[in-house]
Design goal:
single chain; 28% strand; 5-stranded parallel beta sheet; 2 domains; 9-stranded antiparallel beta sheet; alpha/beta; Rossmann fold; 8 helices; Elongation Factor Tu (Ef-tu), domain 3; 401 residues
Length: 401
C-alpha cells in the first residue's frame, strides 16, 4: 500500500476521502493548509480558517491519522489573489478556484506532501482519474468527470498537467454526495452535517466589490443601456452551414466580444467602478422598475462605463463562438493536442455547473476557436472554457478578450 497525504480541509468530502483511503489500507497523513488570513469583505457568518482547522483535527483524531499544518498564505496571495486583482483591473473575470488547484493544491501543496514522503496526494474533489499505457510503455493519466452529475468538479481541475495528475487520487469521485454524507454519519465524523464551503477557494463567501477594494479603488462611472435594436447586432456574420469549414477571418468575427463606445446607448445610472462587474451579471446595479432584469453586456475599464441590456434574451448577451489564444491553450495530455489546421467535435463548458454544450473546435495559428452549435449566453473573458470527450476532460484555456 502507498503513503498518501490528503488535504484535510475541515469539510465532509475530504474527511470521507481520508476514511476511504485508510479503509483501503493506505498509510494516510492529513495536511491542513492555511492559505488566507485576511477577513476583509468576508460575509458575516462565514467560518474563518481556524474553525476549518478544528474540524480537520477532530476528523484526524477520529481516524487516528497524523495531521500536519502548513501556512501557504504567501504563495496563495502571490499566485492566486494577486492574479485575481490584476484580472479584474483589466476588465476580465478570473476563476480563482481553477488557479488555486493548479498553483496551490497540486503544486505548492504537492511539494509539501512530497516532503512528507508521499507517494500520492489525495483531495475530496468529485472527479476521477484513469490511467492507460501506450505501446512504448508510457503511462497517460486521464481526468474524468465525477460520477455525481450534480457535484462534478472536473472543471476546477481543467488546468492540471500529466505530472500533477500522476500524483493525484480522488477517493470520492465514484460516489454521490448523499453517499458521502451517509458514510460520514455512519463513521461519526465531526464534519458529517457541516455545510459545504462557498465562495472563493480558501477565502470564503465575500462581498466581491468590498474584497476587491483592498487593491482596486472605487471610481464612479456611468451605466449605459443598449437596446436590442442597436444596429451592429444585425451585422454580425452568420455562422457557416455545418458542412462548410469557416475561414479564420469568419471565426474571428464570430468570436469577437460585443464592443460599445460612450456614444452608444443612453445613460440610465451610475456605478462605483467598471472593474467590479462581469458580463451576464444582473445583481448590484441598483436600477429597478423594469419589466425584466437588466444584465451587463460589456464593461469598459478604460472609460469606466458598463453597458446593460434588458432581458435574458437580449442579443448582447449571446455569442456563437469564442477564441482562446495559442499560449493559453492547455491539454491535460499533450499527446491529445490538436494540430494547426485540424478540427474536432467536443462538448464544452464555459463556467462551472453549466451543462455541456456541443461545439466544433478549430485549431489555427492565431489560437483555438470554438464554434457552438447554438449561441452561448454570457461568454466572459478571463474565465476558462473546458472541453470534454464523453466524460473525459481533454483540455482548457482562458477565454480571450
Amino acid at each position: 500500500m502507498a503513503r498518501v497525504v490528503i488535504g484535510l480541509s475541515g469539510g465532509v468530502d475530504s474527511s470521507v476521502a481520508a476514511y476511504l483511503l485508510k479503509e483501503q489500507g493506505h498509510e494516510v497523513i492529513g495536511l491542513f493548509m492555511v492559505n488566507w488570513h485576511d477577513t476583509t469583505g468576508t460575509l458575516e457568518g462565514d467560518c474563518p480558517w481556524h474553525d476549518d482547522r478544528l474540524f480537520a483535527e477532530l476528523v484526524a483524531k477520529k481516524l487516528d491519522i497524523a495531521l500536519h499544518v502548513v501556512d501557504l498564505s504567501e504563495e496563495y496571495r502571490r499566485r492566486v489573489v494577486e492574479y485575481m486583482f490584476s484580472e479584474y483591473e483589466q476588465g476580465r473575470t478570473p476563476n480563482p478556484d481553477v488557479l488555486c488547484n493548479r498553483e496551490i493544491k497540486f503544486d505548492v501543496f504537492l511539494k509539501e506532501a512530497l516532503k512528507l514522503g508521499a507517494d500520492y496526494v489525495a483531495t475530496g474533489h468529485y472527479c476521477r482519474k484513469h490511467t492507460t499505457t501506450d505501446a512504448e510503455g508510457h503511462e497517460h493519466y486521464h481526468l474524468l468527470a465525477g460520477s455525481d452529475p450534480n457535484k462534478d468538479q472536473s472543471y476546477f481541475l481543467c488546468q492540471l498537467t500529466q505530472e500533477q495528475l500522476r500524483y493525484a487520487l480522488f477517493p470520492i469521485g465514484d460516489l454521490l454526495k448523499p453517499e458521502v454524507r451517509r458514510i460520514a454519519t455512519e463513521q461519526g465524523l465531526a464534519t458529517a452535517k457541516r455545510k459545504d464551503s462557498q465562495g472563493i477557494c480558501f477565502v470564503g463567501k465575500v462581498d466581491l466589490p468590498v474584497f476587491l477594494q483592498q487593491k482596486l479603488a472605487k471610481k464612479v462611472g456611468n451605466i449605459h443601456e443598449i437596446k436590442p435594436a442597436w444596429p451592429k447586432f444585425a451585422h454580425r456574420p452568420e455562422a457557416p452551414a455545418t458542412h462548410e469549414e469557416p475561414t479564420t477571418e469568419l471565426l474571428a468575427a464570430l468570436a469577437e466580444p460585443w464592443h460599445f463606445t460612450v456614444r452608444d446607448g443612453k445613460k440610465i445610472g451610475t456605478h462605483n467602478g467598471a472593474h467590479f462587474y462581469t458580463i451576464g451579471q444582473r445583481k448590484g446595479l441598483g436600477i429597478g422598475g423594469r419589466k425584466e432584469s437588466l444584465f451587463i453586456l460589456a464593461t469598459d475599464v478604460k472609460e469606466n462605463v458598463i453597458y446593460v441590456g434588458e432581458g435574458d434574451a437580449h442579443p448582447g448577451l449571446w455569442r456563437p463562438a469564442l477564441k482562446i489564444a495559442s499560449q493559453e491553450v492547455h491539454w491535460c495530455d499533450p499527446m491529445q493536442a490538436m494540430q494547426v489546421g485540424e478540427m474536432r467535435r467536443y462538448a464544452v463548458r464555459i463556467r462551472y455547473r453549466q451543462p455541456l454544450r456541443q461545439a466544433t473546435l478549430y485549431c489555427r495559428e492565431e489560437g483555438l476557436f470554438m464554434l457552438f452549435d447554438e449561441p452561448q449566453r454570457g461568454i466572459t473573458s478571463g474565465q476558462f472554457a473546458a472541453w470534454y470527450d464523453a466524460d473525459e476532460l481533454i483540455g482548457s484555456g482562458v477565454i480571450a478578450q
